[in-house]
Structure formats: structure tokens, C-alpha cells
User: Which sequence fits this backbone?
């Protein structure tokens, strides 16, 4: 059992360490670039990027997870692109039009694009991509983009018209997502051998070890907002799978990697402070890291228990202890940087251990034997918590400690992405972590609409006609202010029913050697590796 007082005392010790830190081991220089320029970026060289998780698939139509998105955006191009400021720009489509009710979209396509296998890009490739999404049987992100799909036709070789049965106010933005990347129509095994038209070509996937992509020398159709209009500057990028924070930090310290995501904050902070490494951070829009609470499994089927859980956790203290200030506290199911964010919903709960204990007492949960764990009808107040250490190791034990202090018995079970999806999809959890980077609040529909309980990711298993109606209406509302109001209503319903225990905003943290240059995040906090280069 985690002692919360000891963790709080650790916070004091942590700050002392950070103040006294004066030196750190230097990183081994990265692979030297092959060609240099005294006036601009260098070309050549190989970058190793340490990821917390391994993709499950590299088929954009079937993809869902963060690691998949990060790799896919380098292999595939999309019809529409989104600049860091959220504005839309041409991609594989040079222009587009839509009808007044937002149900029909016509795209004019580029005529100078070839896939990595030499196949030409045209209207048939777009139709093939849509057909592949519609054929996916398991839940995927791309399926949500094509909800209410009616038809897609090739007007001619380089013109496509797409129609829907309901208004799609976010369709153009959604088309910029890597899930909607267009693959070569000749590709057969995209899950393991992806073939796109992007700045990097897939080379190899060594399971549980790495994925390697190489520079596409023919790439000449970068979006207009790109700082590098031509082929990638790097010769090669290797995505290493390093599931624990210690291994990622060790990899960059030893020179095995030049960039790692989400390093252990306490150990990385002094290395950042003394200039050994640089850090790039991004407060991502969308859903923050939060615990979805199962409303169908005891004891979290009781509203009072769910409310007590939220009151028991002190998010400000948690992010200070767990992340040394590199993450910010969350109190809602949307981050403050997201369109439609509701400050009223975020204000519904405050950290209050006494209130948590009162709620549990009133619900009949008492500590009858003095062991600190509450019981009712002979059953402990037990919480099943499946966790992914790659995402949650920094805070999962501290989160459990807060709940334990309120009288919960918390069982943490570590799993990988696929295991979590299967476990939570079957409703075997009481709480499960969720976060979704998105420039639009429409992601709430994916995880809080009861239509996605079976086979999807609506892990609260909350069935509410009111919430479903609001989310469905928001998804098809063309008026921006009306959409914001509807999403504010959705957040209020979610928090009033204590469906979510917010933890921290998903502030993406990338630790890198000083050699890494040209780093830039897209609108949702993913890097444009096509623009990155290595200095000597």
C-alpha cells in the first residue's frame, strides 16, 4: 500500500534535489549528418525516437492509438492538411467545395503524386481508401470520421465527391488526421507493410523493438505551411519501443536515442536545467488524461462512490509530485485549450478528502475493522484499475494512494494497449485511463456516446438518452456557437454524473539532445519529422 504522507514528503526532497543538481552525464553525439550547410539545415543522418508504446497496426483504416498516429503521419498523406494554428490547407486535394447543409464535399486532387510503390495517386485511390475504412470490423478512429457515410464517386480521374446522410461540420478537419491517410491501392498488407505517399518510406518493423522508415527522395508535395518544401532532411528515423520511463531516459543519456517522449520528470528536470538536454512541450487540446469510471460494475455503479473518488484526488498536488511541474492539473473531460471547454463543468469538484469520506459514509461504506479499507455488506470497497505503465507509471500509484486514503482498496493491473482495450471493453474495470488529443471536442462522442459501448471505447458504460442526444446534435451542428453550447452541456452531464476522474492535461513532453533542430509540433502536439535535422 502506498503511503500518501511519504509521497508528500518525497515532494520536498525532490525540490531539494533539483536545486542541488549541478551536473549530469553528457549524451553520446548522435549519428553525424552526411552533408552540412553553413547557412541552413543539414541533410542526412539518422534519428532514433524513443516511444512509450508500440503500434498495434500501421493500417490507417484500423489505427486508433497515439504511437500509431505518430508513425502513420510520416508514411501517409491526407487530402486536407492542418497547420499548427489549426487552419486548413491543401494536401493531396488542391481545393474543395461543400454544399450549404454540410452533407456533400467535392475534392479536386493533385496530379503529380506517386505512392512509394510507384502507383499513381488519383480518384480511384481515394475511393479505395474509403472502402477500406468501411470494411474494418473492429473499432477504429477512421470509422468515426466516416459515420453517416452515404456515397463516394469519382467524377473524373482527379475529382471525388463524398456525401453523407447527416451534416458533417468537422469532416474537413477530420480528413487531416493520419487515420485518413491514403494508401496505395496496390498495397495488400498495410498493417505490417504500409505503403503511402508521405515523406518517409516504411522499411522494417521488428516487433517489441523498433520501426524504421527512410527518406522518400521523390517527395515534393509538402503542405504550403511546411518549413521544408522538399524531401525530408533526415535519411532515416527509427522508432524504438521503450515502455518504461527509465529505459527512455537511459537511451538518450547513452546516445542510443536523440529524442524520447514523456521521460521521468524528476530525473529529467535537472538534465534540462543544466542544458544537457532540451525539452519541447505542448499542451494538447482534446481530452486530458482522466479515469473513465464504469457505471455498471459495483461499487462504481453508485453515484456517491464515483463522486467520492473525484473529491479524494488532489490533482494540483499530484502533478507536482508525479511530473515535477511538466504537466498541469485537469478538472474536466476537455483540456482548457479545446474549443467548447466548459469552466463551469471543471468547477463542479474540488479536492476534499472530508467530503469524499462523508459521501462514502452516507452510502453505507464504513471501515468496520480499522484496517483503513471500507466495507459494505461484507464486501471491501475494491476498485479494479487496469493500467498502462508507459502512460501512467508516473502517477498511478499516487492516484491509488489518494483513493486508499479515502477508504478504497485499489488493485492495479498492468497491461498493454491491446490488453486494456479488451479488458475495459468487456466491462471488467472500475476505472481506466483515457486521453485523446484532438483540436475538436467531437472526441467526446467517441468515448461517451452509449452507441460505442459494445465494441468501442465508451468505457464508462453510461447509458443516457440525454447525453447521447446532446452529443449527436453537437456532431452535426454547423453553427459554431451552438456547437460550443452543446458540448458545454455534454461536459456538465458527464461531470454531474461523475463519469470521469480528471488527472492531468496531456502536455506532451519531448526530451532531446541539442543536436536535434527544426522541431515543430502540429496542431495536436505531434512533430513534423520531415522538417527535423541533426546539427553536428
Assistant:
Amino acid at each position: 500500500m502506498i503511503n500518501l504522507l511519504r509521497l508528500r514528503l518525497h515532494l520536498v526532497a525532490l525540490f531539494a534535489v533539483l536545486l542541488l543538481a549541478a551536473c549530469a552525464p553528457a549524451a553520446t553525439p548522435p549519428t553525424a549528418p552526411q552533408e552540412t550547410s553553413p547557412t541552413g539545415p543539414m541533410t542526412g543522418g539518422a534519428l532514433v525516437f524513443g516511444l512509450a508504446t508500440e503500434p498495434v497496426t500501421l493500417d490507417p483504416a484500423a489505427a486508433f492509438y497515439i504511437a500509431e498516429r505518430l508513425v502513420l503521419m510520416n508514411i501517409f498523406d491526407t487530402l486536407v492538411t492542418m497547420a499548427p494554428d489549426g487552419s486548413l490547407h491543401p494536401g493531396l486535394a488542391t481545393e474543395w467545395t461543400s454544399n450549404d447543409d454540410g452533407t456533400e464535399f467535392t475534392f479536386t486532387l493533385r496530379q503529380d503524386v506517386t505512392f512509394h510503390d510507384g502507383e499513381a495517386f488519383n480518384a480511384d485511390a481515394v475511393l479505395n481508401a474509403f472502402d477500406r475504412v468501411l470494411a474494418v470490423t473492429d473499432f477504429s478512429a477512421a470509422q468515426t470520421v466516416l459515420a453517416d457515410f452515404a456515397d463516394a464517386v469519382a467524377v473524373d480521374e482527379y475529382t471525388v465527391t463524398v456525401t453523407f446522410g447527416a451534416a458533417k461540420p468537422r469532416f474537413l478537419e477530420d480528413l487531416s488526421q493520419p487515420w485518413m491517410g491514403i494508401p496505395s491501392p496496390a498495397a495488400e498488407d498495410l498493417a505490417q507493410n504500409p505503403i503511402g505517399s508521405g515523406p518517409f518510406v516504411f522499411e522494417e518493423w521488428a516487433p517489441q523493438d523498433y520501426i524504421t522508415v527512410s527518406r522518400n527522395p521523390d517527395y515534393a508535395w509538402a503542405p504550403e505551411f511546411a518549413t521544408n518544401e522538399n524531401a525530408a532532411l533526415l535519411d532515416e528515423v527509427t522508432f524504438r519501443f521503450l515502455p518504461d520511463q527509465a529505459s527512455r531516459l537511459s537511451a538518450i543519456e547513452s546516445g542510443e536515442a536523440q529524442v524520447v517522449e514523456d521521460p521521468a520528470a524528476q530525473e529529467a528536470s535537472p538534465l534540462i536545467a543544466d542544458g544537457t538536454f532540451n525539452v519541447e512541450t505542448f499542451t494538447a487540446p482534446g481530452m486530458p488524461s482522466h479515469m473513465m469510471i464504469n457505471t455498471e460494475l459495483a461499487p462504481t455503479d453508485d453515484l456517491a462512490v464515483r463522486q467520492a473518488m473525484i473529491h479524494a484526488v488532489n490533482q494540483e498536488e499530484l502533478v507536482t509530485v508525479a511530473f515535477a511541474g511538466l504537466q498541469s492539473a485537469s478538472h474536466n473531460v476537455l483540456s482548457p485549450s479545446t474549443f467548447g471547454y466548459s469552466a463551469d463543468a471543471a468547477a463542479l469538484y474540488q479536492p476534499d478528502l472530508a467530503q469524499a469520506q462523508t459521501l462514502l459514509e452516507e452510502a453505507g461504506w464504513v471501515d468496520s475493522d480499522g484496517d483503513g479499507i471500507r466495507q459494505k455488506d461484507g464486501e471491501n470497497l475494491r476498485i479494479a484499475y487496469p493500467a498502462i505503465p508507459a502512460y501512467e507509471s508516473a502517477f498511478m500509484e499516487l492516484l491509488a494512494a489518494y483513493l486508499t486514503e479515502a477508504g478504497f482498496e485499489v488493485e492495479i493491473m498492468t497491461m498493454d494497449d491491446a490488453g486494456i482495450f479488451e479488458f475495459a471493453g468487456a466491462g471488467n474495470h472500475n476505472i481506466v485511463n483515457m486521453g485523446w488529443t484532438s483540436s475538436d471536442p467531437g472526441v467526446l462522442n467517441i468515448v461517451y456516446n452509449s452507441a460505442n459501448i459494445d465494441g468501442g471505447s465508451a468505457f464508462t458504460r453510461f447509458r443516457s438518452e440525454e447525453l447521447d442526444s446532446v452529443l449527436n446534435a453537437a456532431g452535426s451542428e454547423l453553427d459554431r456557437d451552438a456547437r460550443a453550447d452543446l458540448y458545454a452541456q455534454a461536459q456538465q452531464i458527464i461531470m454531474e454524473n461523475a463519469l470521469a476522474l480528471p488527472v492531468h492535461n496531456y502536455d506532451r513532453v519531448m526530451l532531446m539532445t541539442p543536436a536535434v533542430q527544426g522541431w515543430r509540433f502540429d496542431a495536436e502536439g505531434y512533430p513534423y519529422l520531415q522538417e527535423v535535422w541533426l546539427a553536428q
Remarks:
- The two ends are 48 Å apart (CA to CA).
- DSSP finds 17 helices and 22 strands in the chain.
- Residues 1-38 have pLDDT under 50 and may be disordered.
- Residues 328 and 505 are 6 Å apart (CA to CA).
